[in-house]
Amino acid sequence: MQRFWPRYYEKFVCTADQCPRTCCQEWKIPVDEATEERWRKLAPPQAVKPQRKALSAYIIEKEETRVIGLKKDHRCPFLTEKKLCALVSAYGDEVLSETCTDFPREVHVFSDHEEETLMPCCPAVIDIWKKEEPGFPNIPGEEENLLFLLRKEILDLLAEEKISPEEALLAAFYILLDLKGRKKPIPADVSDCFSEKTKKELLKAIRKVSLPTEDTALECNEILQDLAVNYQNEGLYGDFLDSVLELSAAISDGEWDEVLEEKWNVFLQEWKKWDGLIRKFLMNEIFSDLVAADSDLESLILRMEWIALEYAGIRQSAFLNWSLKGEGTLAYETLRDAIVVLTRMTGYEEEDIREYLENSFECPLWEWGYFALVLSRGAE
Ligand code: SF4
Description:
- The chain has helices spanning about 35-40, 85-90, 100, 125-130, 145-160, 165-180, 185-195, 195-210, 215-235, 240-255, 260-275, 275-290, 295-325, 330-345, 350-360, 370-375; strands at about 1-5, 60, 65-70, 105-110, 115-120.
- It is mainly alpha-helical.
- The chain folds into two domains: about 25-100, no CATH class; about 145-380, no CATH class.
- The strands form two sheets. It has a three-stranded mixed β-sheet with strand order 1-5-4, covered by helices on one side.
- Strand 4 and strand 5 form a beta hairpin.
- The protein is globular.
- The chain binds iron/sulfur cluster.
- Iron/sulfur cluster binds near residues 23 and 104.
- It is an enzyme of class 2 (transferase).
- Keywords: Cell projection, Cilium, Flagellum, Methyltransferase, Transferase.
- One of its GO terms (biological process) is methylation.
- Its EC number is 2.1.1.-.
- One of its GO terms (molecular function) is methyltransferase activity.
């Protein structure tokens, strides 16, 4: 089976003890069967506390998955004080579970090829995008396949620097809804929708839409709180979420005023300065998450909505964090941390996304106006 990956994929190196937000804490670390079997015969290294008989004794069952039982501070028991893995130091990389070996790489298997990407929930991945173009591959036959052609066209649209990342997503979502309304769309319809003439008209119309800043801010606050509530209840990402959610709740309770509106407008100018990085992040999301092996047009629309929710959560949390820190310019570290934490919180499987959208919205398939409200840059 042929395998494809973006050019940046080969540049990844784990920064280990230098990592600003290690993956060895605050989430589920699954252990596959073969690893569990091997761990039954291995004693924990001295540095691991508390000491147990075998490595397998640190595995627990959580939500029907075998995972490493985290300590009370939500850190992996094998993570040392120097932020290194005690297992790797004692036994080498071969001792690791599949998840620990692969992260942040992911493979998507299709009927005729496989695709590999890196997940943005690792800070080292964002660091690569800060310096490099991702270089997404062309997949043979994508022009003849409705869904792959759609993905290609959306990637091309996002790459256009004259169009803001938000405008590109708004145009793409409009086209997806348009195609969904047709009887049996074919690849030629996709090419029509993305022709220069149609895109120009669509973008002209999109640029005329102006939505009240306050409505977007309040909606994005709700989105952020919904996405974060379970994590906050479990005491996860407290260093990031606690103060951000406090300000978010105050805004929802009516504390949106002229001062905050002014701050929001300043923030948007700062946000714009990171358009290049945000564009690469969104392109990676589209490349890796928009199309799955069993996708149809409806699932693409739901995926786009999920990307919009993720994006809204990132932008809102970056805004709140930036406000709280009183930063003049939006620091790279503030933006990176927002992307890393929010993508860790939104890394849902297909069926979980559908369930979330069904539970959170009257109809899981949004109208374009709601998509625009979520992504709006307001007073721009
Ligand atoms: S998050 Fe990325 S850079 Fe950090 S420890 Fe994990 S793999 Fe390494």
